[in-house]
Amino acid sequence: MCGLDKKTSLCFVYDISRKVGPDTVAQQTGEQLYLQFVTYYQHHEGQMRLRTTTISRQWASGAATVQELIDGFDQEAAAAVVARLVSFKMETEADFDPIRWLDRALIRLCTKFGDYQKETPSSFSLSPRLSIFPQFMFNLRRSQFVQVFNNSPDETAYFRMMLERENVGNAVAMIQPSLISYSFQSGPMPVLLDATAIAPDKILLLDSYFSVVIFHGITIAQWRKAGYQDQEGHEAFAQLLKAPHDESDAIIKERFPVPRLVVCDQYGSQARFLLAKLNPSVTYNSDNPAPGGDVIFTDDVSFEVFMDHLQRLAVQ
Predict the structure, then answer these.
(1) Whose CA is closest to 158, among 248, 255, 257?
(2) Cβ(315)–Cβ(118) under 8 Å?
(3) In the chain, which stretches have pLDDT less than 50?
(4) Cβ distance 316 to 119 under 8 Å?
(5) Coiled coil: which residue ranges (predicted)?
(6) How far apart are the first and last CA of the chain?
(7) Cα dihedral across residues 155, 156, 158, 162: positive or negative
(8) How many other β-carbons are positioned within 10 Å of the β-carbon of residue 300?
């Protein structure tokens, strides 16, 4: 590490050793485990400083192990750790298959911690503490960290470098971007990262950390081009157009490096920056797509199909 700042976030991955050796820490049932980090650095005032951080955890063991692990599971932090780990393996292991590795890890987790009857996929369920984790893995499989096609090696290296230093909240935004909907019917509200979120009378704001996208539905775009926002009596429409820009300005102001701002309309060429991040629940193969919505031209499976396959494999 060349430097540390207030936002630097580091990830340490430990293996539980099965062999007993001179450097092995003995695992005692129910006892406390202590980890100590010693950081020696030069402060910006020129002083050399030594900081020691001690963390205590308890070994989970016995019959209560599974429930203890579920109770202590942080799915957002876990998604950030898995993303860093798969990025590291892609850089250091020559024949590494990231999709296969992620799928196997997710199946093992669901098999061990899921609640189901053997060979009955419809009975499968996950604890609320684990329920969003498969969605994180679905989006990670489709992210720029795993799908490096269409990105230069420099871009891929930059994306991974930022992933490995940012905190959990920012890492989750990189893996699974946030999507906010603006409409006349309601104030700003978060919506699912799905193709069904697109509507002709809505504005969507996508924050994927590296880019911020303001997407206007086709009706909103036509009204804007007609200049309704400048006419008397249409102040509510002017405010609706302004709200996502105010939010994007706030995001850009506090983030470094500055994300790319994309302002686009439905069916426009720049709309691809949003469509590429959405769950393709409505594709060119779909029957009866919603009127006024959008169709994603892809052969990728939707999240629903992904979960169906996961449940079938987890209960075997």
Answers:
(1) 257
(2) yes
(3) none
(4) yes
(5) none
(6) 44
(7) positive
(8) 14
Q: Per the domain annotation, does 189 fall within a domain?
A: yes
pTM: 0.89
- Identify the domain containing residue 196 by its residue range: 177-278
DSSP structural state of residue 275? H
User: Is residue 241 a part of any domain in this protein?
Assistant: yes
> For residue 50, is it within any domain?
no
pLDDT of amino acid 295 = 81
Classify residue 222: in a domain, yes or no: yes
Residues 134-176 have pLDDT tens digits of 999 999 999 999 999 889 999 999 999 999 999 999 999 999 9
Q: Which amino acid would we find at residue 32?
A: Q
Alpha helix locations (H) across the chain?
65-71, 75-92, 98-113, 133-141, 153-163, 168-175, 218-225, 235-254, 272-275, 303-314
CA dist list (Å): 120 to 87, 117, 247, 303, 312: 34, 5, 46, 20, 8
For the domain that residue 268 is a member of, what is the CATH number?
A: 3.40.20.10
Burial class (CB in 10 A: 0-12, 13-18, 19+), 191: middle
- Number of domains the chain is built from: 1
Question: Which is nearest to 241 in space by CA: 260, 223, 261, 267?
Answer: 223
**pLDDT confidence of residue 80:** 97
